[in-house]
Each structure stands twice: as C-alpha cells, then as structure tokens.
Amino acid sequence: MEPWRIGILFSRSGAMEVTESEHFFGTALAIEEINGSGGILGRSVEPVCYDPASEPGLYRKLAERLLGEDGVDVIFGCSTSASRKAVLPVIERRNGLLWYPSLYEGFEYSPNIIYTGAAPNQNSVQLAAYLLQEYGSTIYLIGSDYIYPRETNRLMREFVESQGGEIVGEVYVPIGSDTNPFPRIIDDIRRAAPKVIFSTVVGHDAQAFYRLYSDAGFDPRRQPIASLTMAEGEIQVIGPERCVGHITAGSYFGTVKSDVSRGYVSRYRARYGADAPVSMWSEVAYSQAHLFAAALERAGTLDTQRLTEAALGLDWQAPGGRMLIEPENHHTWLTPRIGRVRADGEFDIVWEAKGPVRPDPYLTCSAPAGNAWLSS
C-alpha cells in the first residue's frame, strides 16, 4: 500500500539548530514507533524532510515545495514565530495543515494549524507570578527582535505592573547580529540591579548571553535569568556549571516523575545516546506526531478538513501529562511547570500545575489575582 507522505520542516542548522534538531529527533522517534507498530491503517508514514537553516524565507520556499512539488498535505514544522508567520500564507493558500510544536506569544488562530506548544496562559503568567513571589518585584526584559519576544514581553510587563512590580529595563537584539550587543546590556543590568532577568533571546544569541552573564560574575542562584525557551539541550551546550540556578517555565522537563515520562526518556536515549538531552522541544514534537497518528486513524485520509475535524478533541497521555486538542481554538491542554537548573544540566521542578490547563491564546478569561495563578 502507498505510504502516508508528510513534510518535516525543522532547522538542523543556523541560529535555531539546537532546539529545532530536538523537534526533529522527537518527530523522527514517533514516526519510527508508529511504523514499527504497523503504521496507520496498515500504511507506513513516509517523511519528506528539509532543513530551512533557521531562515524564515527558506521556510516559506520549502513549504511551497512540500505542498506543491512534493504532493504533501501535512507539515510538522517551524519553531520561532517568525518561521510560522512565514509559512502561514502558504499553508492557508494551499489548504495544508501545519502541526506547530512550539510555545509562542498567542493571539493567533488559523483553521490550518494545530498548535501543540504552550500559549501564554500556560507558561508566561505562571512564571511571572513565581518570579514576583520568589525573587522580588524588579524585572529586566531582554529579547530577540521579532514578534515572539516583543509580544511576550508586553504580556510580562502588563502582568508584573498589575501586581505592583516594576520593569527596570527592556532591550532587544537582532538575531545573529555581527556586533556583540551583550557587554553593553550586561553593564545596563548591573546598573539597574533587577531581582531577575526575563530573557526571550533565542538560539545562538541566547547561548552567548548566558555565557557572558556567567563570565560577568552574576550568581544565578541569587539573580537568575528566567526564560520560556532555555531547555536541557542548550544548557548542555552552554555548560551546566554556568547555568545552575537559572529558571525556565515549560510544559515538560526530562525530570517529570511519571511512568510515561520515564519510558519516553529511556526510548529517546536508547535511540539518540545515553547523554542525549530530553526537553520540551523533543517531547511536544513527539507527542503531536502521535496525536496526528490517532487523528489519521480516525479520518482515514490526509484531507485537511477531515483530518482537522478528527484531531479536535483528541486526548492522549503524553510524557508531559494529558494532552487534549481544544476544538474551540486548535490549541492544546498542557500542564504548566517551572524548573530550576541543577548541576547536571537537568531541572528540579519547583512548581507544577495540578493538571492540564485549558489553552486561552487570546487571554479572554478572567485572570486570577496575583499568585492565585500558582494554585491552579
């Protein structure tokens, strides 16, 4: 029987190579498991893979190739909002379906996207409440210069100021700038003396910033950098000894204590090496591929409308906990967590929600006051 052809569009090179390679590895592992179990309705899954090299324009061109020349209807891909925004017009014009596994800034809906990463009400607000409670009221914002950092920092500012906190600095850096902006920013952080730095810097620039922060003598145990994106893989690249005490909010850490998580970690490392970092980047990509398989088994076709209808309402026990695709907005119920880096490069989970949180990408629901976010 003819295989089910799908597209995979994750960068294995460029600024986002670490996190998007993890997306790729999680997707590949899931496809191997699916095919090893007999495929879907007796047909194997055949991936068509491209490396967009972290360049939004190349994502767009390769999405066109997948949906046009390669005859693919479904794409697993993108990580940054810049890359998602680049492919969105192509996906909608050609009526394809994008499975998008990255946390993002929210405030978007497309009938042609299934959003399986965290929305702001599943990471940002909990992190803000935790930082104010545990570290103090003054926060410094630094981000890469594109939509995700600017919108995420806007939300962070609104929440912090609504709770009586103060933003004592806000600065943005171009991705992959030829000049190094971080020494000047480090000096400004020293002058502003915030209790915590909230970073939405991504990719190679984030790694450079964390290294320089350590070299400048800051103590993350006392004055940490907090992030939504800095996970186990990049911690390994930077050097765990530089990162002990830094904070990340995410829907999954490799240290989640459940049989499903331990089984996933074991299979992932059996496939990619005993020292392979296991993070939210690979876990959500792995999980969405299994959700896709369940949807395709229901629908029996890669037709976008029928496959999407089959996906909405799907419920799956992922390594990070129960995932459910919300029919109202195509986003996914996830369990928020906050972790602190330890000496081995893994995370101690210092807070987690009692269960999965309904996605609210437009923040339409009334927000709990202050630290009530941490009681959910």
From TrEMBL:
It comes from the Bacteria. InterPro entries: AmiC_PBP1, Peripla_BP_I. GO terms for molecular function: amide binding. PANTHER family: ALIPHATIC AMIDASE EXPRESSION-REGULATING PROTEIN, PTHR47628. This is Aliphatic amidase expression-regulating protein. The lineage of its organism: Bacteria, Pseudomonadati, Pseudomonadota, Alphaproteobacteria, Hyphomicrobiales.
